[in-house]
Amino acid sequence: MNEKLNKLENLNKILKPPPLELGGKFLPEGSSKQYDFMFVAEKPSMNIPKDWDGKSNYNFDVTKRDKFFQTMMVKYGVDGNYATDIVKERGRPGKPAKAEIQEWLPFLRKEIEIIQPKVIIVVGERTYNESFKPFVKSSIPKDIKVDWVYHYRQQGSKTDVEVEQRFGEVINRMRYSN
Known about the structure:
Layout: H1 2-12, E1 25-27, E2 37-41, H2 64-75, E3 81-85, H3 98-115, E4 119-123, H4 125-135, E5 145-149, H5 160-176
Parallel strand pairs: 2-3, 2-4, 4-5
Antiparallel strand pairs: 1-3
């Protein structure tokens, strides 16, 4: 396990320092590291914490919605697993361009190679259909199960109950499927 952590640390060292680029991290911080599930979102948040120290990776740990995501991870027993983004650069808001995805794809593949998850959960249905499925899915090992959950930052289109319900259903299905 320490070998995986060392490889991830070394991989993340090639990123530009925050807030320009943000790598993945195990969530919530302080949880025992797990490697069965990997969560993949589209790109880092544009938000920067008010109390940020100027150095640390704050990805997935800024807003109340990020806390909601981490709470669901704990509730459904997937706390301590790795969360990352397809695109690591905090550029302009919005959907990443094909060129951005292709630029960062080798980095994501390397993260997947190091973690060796049994399951990849894509955060966001649109992210799954428009970014992950066409550009990433064909390049990962076939024995890794893949599904998507609603993005925890749904802007009013889904209630927290709907977001959490899908999250729980997907986690349980992936955990118990052969």
